[in-house]
Design a protein that fits this description.
With about 210 residues, the chain is of the alpha+beta class. About 50% of the residues lie in helices and about 20% in strands.
Length: about 210
């Protein structure tokens, strides 16, 4: 009888252990699913002066019905969660008057956590496509800065031929960078986004090499 009791106890322990393992696996699976279906945008601002203000996450391209998420800033931070697949590219922005001091920011909706800093110059990092987008943003801002410098020099030199050549050179450098960027990202939503912005600048031959559908 004692042997039977011990056997039953061991059997029960084994069954419980198996169910426990199944439970842990299920929890892990569901947790993995959650991570794969959510983009969590975690933002910070220069200080607490903007506490109580609202940050909006707006689709870049508004097709048909679209969703706008919003959240209040607390302690100089905010968090917005967005399901993957709802929109590819969104804009983080404050109310219009605050956009003079808080730069709008493009964000790629991709799985994982995206860290953003919102300020006079905003930035994003922490997820692959947003890291790529940040590099693209920095290159664009640098090109825009060179254009402004050229315009300032034009006003002092009054040399329109020099200015036209300078702008043409900047255009070619910028276009080549964007072409390489699209080529590197043509299989993801970021590549399609930049492609849609530069397509009108491409020759028919260049356009054919991408074979990207918008």
């Amino acid at each position: 009888m004692l042997h039977l009791f011990v056997f039953l106890q061991k059997t029960r322990a084994m069954v419980n252990k198996r169910w426990y393992i199944v439970f842990i696996l299920c929890v892990g699976f569901l947790s993995g699913c959650t991570k794969e279906t959510l983009c969590i945008v975690e933002g910070s601002l220069p200080g607490k002066e903007y506490d109580g203000e609202t940050i909006y996450l707006v689709p870049f391209t508004k097709r048909g019905e679209f969703r706008i998420d919003s959240v209040q800033i607390q302690n100089g931070t905010f968090t917005i969660k967005r399901e993957i697949g709802e929109d590819d590219i969104c804009i983080l922005r404050a109310r219009p008057l605050l956009r003079l001091s808080l730069q709008e920011l493009l964000v790629v909706i991709e799985p994982g956590h995206v860290k953003v800093n919102i300020g006079s110059t905003s930035s994003a990092s922490g997820a692959p496509l947003n890291d790529e987008l940040q590099r693209w943003k920095e290159n664009k801002e640098l090109t825009d800065q060179f254009r402004r410098q050229a315009l300032t020099e034009l006003n002092s030199k009054k040399d329109t031929a020099w200015y036209d050549q300078r702008i043409q050179d900047l255009h070619e450098v910028s276009l080549n960078y964007n072409i390489q960027f699209v080529e590197r990202n043509k299989d993801n939503k970021l590549g399609r986004f930049v492609y849609s912005m530069i397509r009108h600048q491409l020759t028919p031959e260049q356009d054919k090499t991408f074979a990207i559908s918008e």
